[in-house]
Amino acid sequence: MVDQLLRATAAEGGIRLVGTITTGLTEEARQRHQLSYVATAALGRTMAGGLLLASSMKRNDARINLRVKGDGPLGGVMVDAGADGTVRGYVDHPEIELPPNAKGKLDVGGAVGSGYLYAVRDIGYGYPYSSTVELVSGEIGDDLTHYLVSSEQTPSALVLGVFVGAAGVSAAGGLLVQVLPKAARDEALVEALESRVSGLGGFTPLLQAGKSLPQIFADLVGDWGLQIFPETQLVQFQCGCSFERVLGALKILGERELRDMIATDEGAEATCHFCGQIYQAGSPELEELIRQLRADQAESASS
After folding, report:
1. What residues does each domain of the chain span?
2. Which residues are connected by disulfide bridges in this protein (predicted)?
């Protein structure tokens, strides 16, 4: 199934559901960063979570940055997701691998360890909103759920999953279920919903069984007045880096440093942390930057 995001409501608008399939973009991230199994699971879950959280933002240019920083061997996980369906991310130590945990699953919690989740919401105007919460388990889904409950005061459940094998990622995505204020006082409804979400048994098994997002929604709350939004949003791994941005960053270094790069390496090389793209600027490009710097200095002196 194509990578996508779908929204729905149930219980007369009292329950909000968002589901996303991110198999393709998670596999792209795995290949770009040469991720281990456990690193693939950690980054894949966080990217799916970022897209689900960004789905409630109103402006198309709004974005959310998630940084999971633990004391485990993986180091940190960084994800940037947008309301436009684009996402990118990386892990500090992509090569780290761990034995399966006691349940026989990838030990994402052990790889992440204890620490904090940092979230920055840029709603497209004004100042971004920042929040910090302590990691609950390092398994990503629990931690993002804790963030939603503690920072946004919204009863929520996140089910995230990545299935990766020798051939790569075969299933990835997630489900966000939120109880909105109009239904939060219905304790019986909340308890029943919690029971149903707990009974899902994970998200990737549903994809592997051939379930589509509408079918997953229907199985979960189909008897509670499910209303699926008609628009299916495509999601993708996309990075905003470019050669022009790299040249802009190099220009900031100044003429002395650029001259040293020309003399020592006959150019410069830069790698984007988010997507792994390698950019190379040769001596001619660096000489042009020096020319621009001198022109800027001359203009500044004459003004």
Report:
1. 4-237, 243-302
2. 239-241, 272-275
Phi/psi class of residue 104: alpha, beta or left (left: φ > 0; alpha: ψ in -120 to 50)? Answer: left
**Identity of the amino acid at 109:** G
Q: Give residue-wise pLDDT tens across range 184-205.
A: 778 888 899 999 999 988 999 9
Give residue-wise pLDDT tens across range 278-288.
999 999 999 99
Cβ distance 289 to 258 under 8 Å?
A: yes
Q: Which CATH architecture has domain 4-237?
A: 3-Layer(bab) Sandwich (3.55)
Q: If residue 13 lies in a helix (H) or strand (E), which one and from where to where?
A: none
Q: What SS3 state is found at 53?
A: helix
Say what the pTM is.
0.91
Residue 231 DSSP symbol: P
Residue 62 to residues 69, 91, 128, 129, 145: CA-CA distances in angstroms?
Answer: 23, 23, 10, 12, 21
Closest by CA position to 89, among listed 1, 28, 23 = 28
CATH number of 243-302: 3.90.1280.10
User: b or e along 64-85 (b: 16 or more beta carbons within 10 Å of the residue's beta carbon)?
Assistant: bbbbbbbebbbbbbbbbbbbbb
Strand, coil or helix: what is 71?
A: coil
Rounded to whole angstroms, what are the CA distances from 18 to 2, 4, 61, 159, 165? 16, 11, 19, 11, 26
* Strands of the sheet with 76-82, listed across from one edge: 129-134, 115-122, 63-70, 76-82, 86-91, 236-237
Parallel, antiparallel or unpaired: strands 267-271 and 278-282: antiparallel
- Report strand pairing: 227-228 vs 233-234: unpaired
